[in-house]
């Protein structure tokens, strides 16, 4: 099929929940993908922050092929060597005192599980989340997702949540002093979809202190920042703190759907059979992908590459954008004009990048193993597009 035939079929038979790029992809290798007509694109979007090792990383592909020939699936009712290896390796790479894991299928499931664990452990229903935060589209996670456009149709069935501005410790402290029913604070350390915003490191350390004082669970939603994308396995390591729960997904399986919750010793000690469950979470193919992904990151020292990629891009664009935000391979470029025409022009020139809810922000999520020549190719194309894409006049 050609691109137009693919578009017609999908638009006919899928419900229209996404505005899609007019691109039909059929193959990927490293930081490049190819469409049905054979055109190559430099992919700095990564299927929405997923392909941390690029497309079709060889060790992951080999692990999936071998596991598919051996056993496609069995549920958690039995033990599994491939699941055991994945859990042990994840625990080895996780921060100290967060070495218990629950496997699921996606980021929103991981966040749902974390919220359930926090409420069960504290015996409280209340929740604090951050304005502009995004945690998923299923109902439990949606309750912590602040932008009203996501929540409005479902407000009558969502659990109540207190939303506070990112960086505002006084707002958090006031809520904790006035409400004794708060189970957890959940936040994205870097708010990616909002436009790649991060608070000063002291903010996260003070949140840890407030949670300890009030007996509140601190949840880091690292669905996008985790698995080494920012330079450490968890961004919490860069702040010098330990959350009680960390949620992971996106990059964890190199494109195979998988999510996980890293659980602290104190909360794990209170979990008993029946408190949570999943049929497909921890399935054999996903666990093979997790193990191969983590081994590749560890054995090739790829987390150390993240700051160098950030700095090379920052230096290349600094004189041409309003701001460069983020860490490692999660980068927000704020422009002096709307991002949508620039993104469209980049796509025409063979580069895929991401948008944000901030209309002037372009998000870049390149793989950890992106070579310098690919970064330079992006920079050359990006700067050419900016020069040839006039600023939108101020009215």
From TrEMBL:
Q: Which Gene3D superfamilies match?
A: Aspartate Aminotransferase, domain 1 (3.90.1150.10), Type I PLP-dependent aspartate aminotransferase-like (Major domain) (3.40.640.10)
- List the molecular function annotations (GO) for this entry: identical protein binding; pyridoxal phosphate binding; transaminase activity
Annotated keywords: Aminotransferase, Pyridoxal phosphate, Transferase
Q: Which cofactor does it need?
A: pyridoxal 5'-phosphate
Keyword field contains Acyltransferase? no
Q: Which InterPro entries match?
A: Aminotrans_3, Aminotrans_3_PPA_site, Class-III_PLP-dep_AT, PyrdxlP-dep_Trfase, PyrdxlP-dep_Trfase_major, PyrdxlP-dep_Trfase_small
Regarding protein family, the annotation reads: Belongs to the class-III pyridoxal-phosphate-dependent aminotransferase family.
Identification of the protein by name:
Aminotransferase class-III
Record the organism: Rhodothermus marinus (strain ATCC 43812 / DSM 4252 / R-10) (Rhodothermus obamensis)
Phylogenetic classification of the source organism: Bacteria, Pseudomonadati, Rhodothermota, Rhodothermia, Rhodothermales
């Amino acid at each position: 099929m050609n691109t137009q035939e693919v578009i017609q079929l999908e638009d006919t038979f899928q419900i229209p929940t996404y505005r899609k790029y007019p691109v039909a992809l059929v193959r990927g290798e490293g930081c490049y993908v190819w469409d049905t007509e054979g055109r190559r694109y430099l992919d700095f979007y990564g299927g929405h922050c997923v392909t941390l090792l690029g497309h079709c990383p060889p060790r992951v592909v080999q692990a999936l092929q071998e596991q598919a020939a051996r056993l496609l699936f069995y549920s958690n009712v039995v033990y599994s060597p491939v699941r055991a290896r994945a859990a042990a390796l994840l625990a080895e790479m996780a921060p100290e005192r967060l070495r218990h894991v629950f496997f699921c299928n996606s980021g929103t499931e991981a966040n749902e599980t974390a919220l359930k664990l926090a409420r069960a452990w504290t015996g409280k229903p209340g929740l604090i989340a951050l304005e502009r935060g995004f945690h998923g589209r299923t109902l439990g996670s949606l309750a912590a997702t602040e932008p009203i456009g996501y929540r409005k149709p479902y407000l009558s069935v969502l659990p109540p949540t207190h939303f506070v501005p990112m960086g505002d410790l006084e707002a958090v402290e006031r809520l904790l002093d006035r409400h004794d029913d708060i189970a957890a604070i959940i936040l994205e350390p870097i708010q990616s979809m909002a436009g790649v915003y991060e608070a000063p490191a002291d903010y996260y350390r003070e949140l840890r202190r407030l949670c300890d004082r009030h007996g509140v669970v601190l949840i880091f939603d690292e669905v996008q920042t985790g698995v080494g994308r920012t330079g450490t396995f968890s961004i919490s390591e860069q702040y010098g703190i330990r959350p009680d729960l960390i949620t992971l997904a996106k990059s964890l399986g190199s494109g195979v759907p998988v999510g996980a919750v890293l659980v602290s010793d104190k909360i794990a000690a209170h979990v008993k059979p029946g408190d949570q469950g999943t049929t497909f979470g921890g399935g054999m193919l996903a666990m093979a992908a997790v193990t191969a992904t983590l081994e590749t990151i560890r054995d090739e020292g790829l987390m150390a590459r993240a700051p160098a990629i950030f700095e090379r891009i920052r230096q290349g664009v600094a004189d041409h954008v309003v701001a460069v935000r983020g860490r490692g391979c999660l980068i927000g470029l704020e422009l002096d004009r709307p991002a949508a025409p620039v993104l469209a022009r980049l796509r025409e020139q063979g580069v895929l990048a991401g948008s944000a809810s901030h209309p002037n922000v372009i998000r870049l999520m390149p793989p950890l193993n992106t070579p310098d020549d690919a970064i330079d190719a992006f920079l050359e194309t990006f700067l050419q597009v900016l020069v040839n894409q006039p600023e939108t006049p101020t009215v």
